[in-house]
Design a protein that fits this description.
Gyrase A, domain 2, six-stranded mixed β-sheet, disordered N terminus, 15 helices, 550 residues, 20 strands
Length: 550
Amino acid sequence: MGLFGNNKDVVAVDIGSNSIKMVQLTKNGSQYSLVRWGVEKLAAETIVDGSIMNTGEVIDVIKRLTASASTKNVVVSVSGNAVIIKRITLQAMSMDELEEQIKWEAEQYIPFDINDVNIDVHILEGAHPDPSQMDVLLVAARRDLVNENLSLLQQAGLTPSVVDVDAFAVANMFKVNYPELNEMGTIALVNVGHNTVNIHVLRDGISVFTRDLSSGGGAFTEELQRALTISNEEAEKLKVGDDDNPMTLEVEQILASAADALANEIRSTLDFYLSTSMDGVIDRILLSGGAARTPRFSQALYNQTRISVEEVDPFRNIMIDGPDVTTDVLDDMAPQFAIAVGLGVRASDGMVDGDEIGVNLFPKRYSRRQQAILAELQSVGVVLLAVVLVCAAIHIGFGMQVDKVRSVNNTLQSKIEENKKTVNQVKTLEKEKKLLQEKLNAIEDLKLKKVGPVRLLDELAINCPDKLQLTSLSETGGKVKLTGVAASSPDISTFMRNIEQSDFFDMIVLHTIEQVEQDGIKLKEFSITTDFVVPGLAEKKEEEKKGGKR
């Protein structure tokens, strides 16, 4: 039995850096059932920093996990720096109209070449108080990342149908399993993978903030390796502990230190959200991912945030119904299946139920509007065929009027040819006008960009707290990398909030924060990347687009 009936069955595959998870769900009414599942750990360094180093092994693992699945349709997800998620406000319109317009709107929000990304949107129904406006999730992923995942699945003999986003999959898992919490305050979903932490904040069930951190449970393993001079495999065993590898005091202290560091990064990101949100509060944290049960981590996250931390159960509202599903083993591994279950609720046509998030970054051949146009053209074709048949009957019945009809037809054809010449002349003038306008725009852009470097240094100087010092700055193609030291983590958070409020910075990401000692003073060394923008350019482009619409 398929997920949503014939032709909609899917198998969900979550390709992580440390392991690959698979689930297949069925749905009867509103009840989901788990019929197949599997997980297989990857060898060390099979996937490093999101890059697949051993394609053959990944394909083999996917083949083994999906061998018993009843369908070849597969859903997968992506995350990381190559994925951009923006919540934007637009004038209210239909999905068809939005799909026609979004490519042009997206250019001002996405730091990649628009031709190098796959784009999709999700309308947040009821999120905007003004009925003439609507809030939209704009999602873009670099095409090479999407194509790499599609190639893996195709080589494994599967048929990709949906490319989702990790953070949205976790949200959909939450909406299915915790409906009673869906509209009760602000909840932070924190999914801790091996090399990535997905943070997704929902306010009354509506997405308000997403961020991926380039760190995760792998930090615990690396810290054990470094401190104890042991292999990756030995460190992984010590991290979870068992009868053969008991948890010693030394191991607990190492894990506690790593847990504090990771919890601090998550707290900084949540602080950033709180500093920019209207309500300024998070009611609870729901924790998932392969590293969720790492000793000391949950407590460290509570100590850092003072927010209630609960472990997610991805199978809480899902019936266990498969012949190869054992609840005891499943309970032991449940937190790491959050993404896979969220992917499993999708249908092969990309549709979702209720208020679940339904983006699909799979390359689209036709938009919804284009599909409607094709259907209309087919209808027009039927009408034209009927007209031809009627004309043929008239021609047979009224042969004496053929000459007159031909004369009228020749006159109309002559007028059509004249109109074509006029249309071509108009098109030529429009092209010349557009070329001239582009040249004028280029000159204006150069004027605006002259102030860029000076304004960059000025804005940084204005927004630096007293106890924070920048030690290096580099800028390439509008992407700025900053490093520096601060007296404390709050000073770093203050600096990030300051430049977030500036009109000259966007896409601010904290990459590293480490404790260092200089001249006997303990400091926090950090690294930040951000996009530097010239507001004049953005305003000018917006005016041009508004002028184009008129």
